Amino acid sequence: MERQNELLSKAEDVADQILRHSKHVLPHIARLCLISTFLEDGIRMWFQWNEQRDYIEATWGCGYFLASLFVFINLVGQVGGCVMILSRQKVQWACGLLSSIIALQTIAYSILWDLNFLMRNLALAGGLLLLLAESKAEGRSLFAGVPTMGDNNPKTYMQLAGRILLILMFLTLIRFGAGYVQAFQNIVGLCLIILIAVGYKTKLSALVLVVQLTLLNFYLNDWWNIPDYKPMRDFLKYDFFQTMSVIGGLLLVVALGPGGVSVDERKKQW
Fold first, then answer.
1. What is the DSSP string of 158-194?
2. One-character DSSP codes across 194-206
3. What is the pTM of this model?
4. How far apart are CA 236 and CA 216, in angstroms?
5. Using CA atoms, how far apart are residues 158 and 161, in angstroms rounded to an integer?
6. Of 19, 102, 160, 229, which one is least surrounded by beta carbons within 10 A?
7. What are 33-71's pLDDT values in tens digits?
8. DSSP annotation of 149
9. Which residue from 224, 203, 233, 221 is spatially nearest to 22, judged by alpha carbons?
10. pLDDT, tens digit, for every residue of 141-150?
11. 256: which residues sit within 8 A by CB, 6+ positions away?
C-alpha cells in the first residue's frame, strides 16, 4: 500500500509540473480541441452542400428550401460559434448556439435512436457545459443578503454535469472479447472515468485519460490513410474530431479542476 501511495504521489507531482508549465496555454489548447468537431463539420457542410441537402430532403421529404436551410444553419451556426469561442466573444451565446446544433443534428440524422452516437453527442454537450462554466461568473446567492457556500452556484453544477457527460465518450470505445490488451484498456479507462465522475484525483485522472484517448483516437480513426473516394474516410474523420472535442473538454477539467461538487474539493474542507 505504501508503495502504491508513493507511486501515486510521484505521478501527481509529475502532473503538477506539467500543469505548472502549461497553465497559460492549456485552456487555449482545450478550447481549440473542443470546437474542432464543430469547425470540421461546418466546413464539411460547405464542401458537401449538395450531398447534405439531398440527404435531408430524401430522409424527411421536407423539400429543397428547408433542406437547404438546414445545411445553411449548420454551416453558419457551427463556424460562427467556433469563431466566437476562439475570440472569447459572447461565449455563453456561442455555447448555446452549438448546443442547439447538437440537438438539431440529433433529430435530423436520427441519432436519437443510435445509442453509440447519442452518447458521443451528449459527451460533446458536456464539453460545452465545461466551457460555459469557464466563462461564467460565480453565481449569486438565491436569496439576497444570505451568504452561500461556494459549491451552490450554477458554475459548480455545470462542472459536475460536464464531467459526467464527458465520460460517455469513453464508454463508446469499450470493446468486449477483443483480447487481454483491450480488456486491460477497458479496466484502466473505467477506473479513470469513475474517478473523474466523483472528482477524486481529478486532474491526474483526466490527464491520463487524455493521453489514452489521444492514442486510441489516432490509432482507431486514422482517416488520413483512407482514400478520398471511400465513404469510410468521412466517417472516421467525423469520429476523430468528435473525440478531439471530448479531449478538449477533459483538458478543461485538467486546467480548471473538478469544481465544488467533488471529493477533491471536500478533502480541502476536512
1. HHHHHHHHHTHHHHTT--SSS-HHHHHHHHHHHHHHH
2. HHHHHTSSHHHHH
3. 0.84
4. 13
5. 5
6. 229
7. 999 999 999 999 999 999 999 999 999 999 999 999 999
8. -
9. 203
10. 333 443 444 4
11. 27, 130, 133, 134, 159
